[in-house]
Amino acid sequence: MSEDLNAMLEPGMLVEHPDRPDWGRGQVQSNINGRITVNFRDEGKVVIDGSRVFLVPVFGED
């Protein structure tokens, strides 16, 4: 099920990495064949293997 959620991620969406809260929120740059490029506020651009890490979508502002 989580892989399905990763497949729904589109450029511009905000996400958090479940194991790296210190990276802050990130904005999805691309999602191609399960490789998700995210620009994180405190870490910069990271390419995530969507079959191993299930990003958490962020909706709204806290």
> Main sheet?
5 strands, antiparallel
By CATH, the topology is SH3 type barrels
Name the CATH architecture.
Answer: Roll
Strand content: 35-45%
Determine and state the CATH class: Mainly Beta
Gross morphology is globular
Q: What does the average pLDDT come to?
A: 92
Number of domains: 1
Tell me the distance between the termini.
26 Å
Strand arrangement within the widest β-sheet reads 4-3-2-1-5
> What is the element string, with H for helices and E for strands?
HEEEEE
Helix/strand/pairing category? mainly beta
SS field, number of helical segments: 1
- How many beta-strand segments? 5
Radius of gyration: 10 Å
Percent of residues in helical segments? under 10%
Weakly predicted, low-confidence segments: none
Entry keywords:
62 residues; mainly beta; SH3 type barrels; five-stranded antiparallel sheet; 1 helix; 10% helix; DUF3553
Walkthrough of the structure:
InterPro entries: DUF3553. The mean pLDDT is 92. 10% of the residues lie in helices and 40% in strands. By secondary structure, it is mainly beta. β3 and β4 (44-49) form a beta hairpin. The chain has a single domain (2-58), classed as SH3 type barrels. It contains one helix and five strands, in the order αβββββ.
Strand and helix map with partners:
Elements: H1 2-7, E1 14-16, E2 26-32, E3 35-40, E4 44-49, E5 56-58
Antiparallel strand pairs: 1-2, 1-5, 2-3, 3-4
